[in-house]
Fold this sequence. Notes:
Elements: H1 3-27, H2 33-38, H3 45-56, H4 60-72, H5 75-105, H6 112-119, H7 126-158, H8 162-211, H9 214-222, E1 232-235, E2 240-243, H10 246-253, H11 263-271, H12 278-308, H13 323-331, H14 336-376, H15 383-404, H16 412-436, H17 442-463, H18 475-492, H19 498-506
Antiparallel strand pairs: 1-2
Amino acid sequence: MTGTTLGIFTVIVVYILGMVGIGISFSKKNNDVNDFYLGGRKLGPLVTAMSAEASDMSSWLLMGLPGLAYLSGTADPGWTAIGLAVGTYFNWLIVAKRLRRYTVAAGNSITIPDFFSNRFRDKSHALLAISALIIVIFFIPYTASGFAACGKLFSTLFNIPYIPAMLISAVVIVGYTALGGFLAASATDFIQSIVMTLALIIVVCFGIQTAGGFDIVLDNASNLAGYLSMTSLHDAATNSASNYGFISIVSTFAWGLGYFGMPHILLRFMAIEDERKLTLSRRVASVWVVISMAVAIFIGIIGYSMSQSGALDVLSGSDSETLIIKTAQLLSAHGVLAIILAGIILAGILACTMSTADSQLLAAASSISQNILRDVLHLKLSQKGMMRAARLTVVGIAIIAVFIARDPNSSVFAIVSFAWAGFGAAFGPVMLCALFWRRTNRFGALAGMISGGTMVFIWKYLVRPIGGAWNVYELLPAFLVACIFIVAVSLLTKAPEQEILDEFDSI
């Protein structure tokens, strides 16, 4: 191991030990499962905002977005970022405060399945069981994608086999999550959002300097056909532009709909100590999301000029996602301070992945131990027994995720895209109707949840492959189908009981 590699390795190890230390420090604050899964509803506004967004911005922020911009220009990543920014803002604006208030009134619900079951007074536990099952189905592979991304990062940087690298990453994430629970995950996510921000700033400054200046970066991008257009895709092979039409724009913009159904983000709304502080959280989160995604896309544009200057090799295909890793390695050759800065950049990529994986682990674990074992199977456990079950569930889910992530060639982005659509379609329409339409009943909610989740599979594997006008991101048609089923089934079945209506009106 060279001195440069050792220096980067040291920075990353210090960062990892810090995350584990936070988990240990918060382990003593978990007195019951309410603390473990929701932090006792004690989060401050800044931690709420930044932990929510850090848990959302997985490794695609520092790998996927820059890589996509590097290859094809601004249209595809740009419309994705706009859709996500709009979805983020409206999720905080219309969902956050009402969900925080409603989950307390509806039996002090501490998980999303709890809320759906209590909101609709579903004594059959069908809503509870199916929503918990959906979380497990989509979150286990989602978590596996995080383990895989960490494994690829360590394997590439330190030239060690993928499997050991992935296992070490998984052990670290599981360690602080199982020890500290929701408070540890939120605190580490807050710190990780800061590390991600520092990584973006360092890469932009070093990249512009290496490319020859801001004007050179813009000139190089302007000379590429369709590169800076929001209605064209650049083709690097032929230096030509293809039309990025209305259907593509709508399909990409639809990513923003996913926010209304993301359990790991919605849990942050439920956990804030005071709903009045959500206004500050919304402003902080929205500003950070817009700036961070814009900077990530700009890094892709800078990367092209770095390749043109000869500082970086020309990247193609999935290698474009290693742009920031290559930039960090290039930076590390400029002395001790540069090695530390390179370590911060690479820790930022690690932070993106860890902040998402820990939240997903907790959400999936709560669905099994809290909703399936306790509420559906009616297992009688003491508070200590429930805490032990919660921690063992985190470990058990991680073991399954490790097994799924054993293939280093698995597509991280494909898994994330599919899981995002699954949650957005299965939970998003139900959540919005539960909060804003008093006539929604449990039959409509159940129909919407099942139809939305099922349509994601149908559209992804049967309809979208047809191509042409059918090549729409599966979240959009599945979301619309779920809305139709909720409304139709709710109107065709018995209206909610007066107790449910009175509770809705009070919220």
